[in-house]
């Protein structure tokens, strides 16, 4: 199965992929990726130092061409996080032009940029794993989400249909290249549909305005910053589609985008484990506060806490479950197998929603307080608590998300500690262990944590 679409289209010579200001034709990109793919024979899993530039695009493409699953590693991952991802995934090499990219892991670093132009090999079978994306759970270190080539292809085709996304579009975004949004939709989507791609390095409003695209991706924080830069926002008037996802788009930001850009954003909902399952359509309604209808090949339903189905009447709030072709294979297990927590094919998203009689979904919130969404990043409270507890002065830690006007939620820590360490010291300590966005923004040093009779921390009382 060709995950990357047609590879020998004469138009490839002209279709550009730009990142960090460097442009390659699609033809050149595939040639370089093929040259690297030729070096990956026998590699069971390849890590990629996923900095926001063309080497990441080439390295991920090379893995896909070679049939080697790729695990993208956040470039700012702290030592603890990087070591966990590299060990847990079983990556045998690190693909990067930066010789120090493997950190202290001892993995051989294979340079991405190499002379020559490889010939594009036959791609492997659809059910083979393509990517392993690490994402936070409520407790413990991040888990490896195994996504097959078939799931990715099904999702990209469903989104192309819903958004009328074709090679005539130019996609622009500046999202990180190690999550579903920036990497699967933002890179593989462009390669599969054939649309030229401009990656702006960071998702700054001015860079979006200057890129002259037709299709723009952003998390709500990006769209809120675009609205705060009205000249940049007005420059997007000529775009065909502005797409928001990864976190709830506040209604005022939706309204402001309409005023400034002349168009209502398309909202879509998804998860690392399920890819994008629900979306507004390019040719349909756009309703603030709503994420649309299931994409092709996906079914959804609401259940109560006992798992019994609830009505789709637009008012009943229930646990959202999804089923279909876009779901992951499961979480990577220590023996290399995968285990998907599915029941009759249904995956419980952990999100709470309503579904209208017309099929329109509204995401109301999350069932657990232990998953935080900050700037569109998913942060597990447990992982941050575990990092804080490694600090010698910290005796107890509880982490929650609290409202933040720009980021949606911010990571907020309540800490019981000996000798009152400075908040900045604890923040810097976490930053050394985990990726930057997992750092607490607010630290409260408290005498004790509120606990119930069982001794469990009552996080709702903290919030
Ligand atoms: C951050 N900073 C701190 C801090 N935390 N400083 C002190 N203490 C802390 N605790 C610093 C940052 O390092 C930065 O510094 C500055 O403060 C501003 O940080 P910020 O406000 O977080 O902004 P920024 O770095 O600009 O990031 C915002 C953002 C980013 C929107 C660009 O959050 C982002 O890229 N989000 C996208 C996440 C994403 O792709 N999610 C998709 C998941 S997939 P400096 O010096 O660096 O400026 C998914 C599925 C789906 O969800 O549905 O798509
Ligand atoms: P992640 O695993 O990082 O992919 O995050 C997935 C989570 O992001 C979902 O479970 C939701 O809580 C949230 N999310 C994604 N898209 C939306 C959206 N459009 N509206 C509200 N929440 C969203």
Mean pLDDT over all positions: 95
Biggest sheet strand order reads 2-1-10-9-11-12-13-14-15
Give the N-to-C terminal Cα separation: 48 Å
Q: Assign the CATH topology of the domain at 5-174.
A: Rossmann fold
User: Strand count, sense and closure of the main sheet?
Assistant: 9 strands, mixed
Radius of gyration over all CA atoms, rounded: 22 Å
Question: Count the helices. How many?
Answer: 12
Number of distinct beta strands: 28
Helix content: 25-40%
Task: Give a verbal description of the structure.
By secondary structure, this protein is α/β, with parallel strands linked by helices. Among the domains are: 5-174, ANL, N-terminal domain (Rossmann fold), CATH 3.40.50.12780; 371-462, ANL, C-terminal domain (GMP Synthetase, Chain A, domain 3, 2-Layer Sandwich), CATH 3.30.300.30. 26% of the residues lie in helices and 29% in strands. The chain is globular. The model has no long low-confidence stretch (mean pLDDT 95). The structure holds malonyl-coenzyme A and adenosine monophosphate. Malonyl-coenzyme A is lined by residues 175-176, 179-182, 203, 219, 221-222, 245-246, 270-272, 375-377, 427, 436-437, 439-441.
